[in-house]
Request: fold
Amino acid sequence: MELSSIKFACLDTETTGLYATQGGKICELAVSVSQNGKVIEEFSTLLNPQMPMLPEVIAIHGITNEMVKNAPTFADILPRVVSLLDGCVLVAHNADFDLSFLKAEFENCGLRFPDYPVIDTLKLARKSGRFESNRLGNIATTLGISCEGWHRAMADTKMAEQILYYFLNTLKEHGVCTLEQLNEFQCKRWKDLLVNTKEKCL
Reply:
């Protein structure tokens, strides 16, 4: 699949705990859908997790129980989420974390989370070997991207989106032009893949 034809849905979740398997829920979700670097649609909302948040988690994202008490539940926004993600490649920084919570929320609503293609900017950063720290805000700072609002869902989503397009533009110079090729670069070290990549794309 050509990268130029793909809709990327960058997303981020803020949660009540660290693990969906231990009953953690999403308390904020943001999604930004783009194609060829142009944003098509954005969505962000606080969510009522219908459970109290741990103080140590509130200290990370700053979202309090008071802030979410009148917010919609995940079930309320599920149709919008399904519509937003339809036909997209999902993008997140440390995607396994966010997807574990989304899968749990879908299951709680009686649905199976679709098997979307996923690009993880954390994996791309690690395999590139270019950053002293692969934390989202540190990568953003290194690349001159604003990390204002770090640890809130839309701020993190927009950072991941800009980091994604940095990687896409960088790898395009080496002939990476398909989703299949991009996926290789999040699985293997870049220096081991750059040889002859351009020729494969031609």
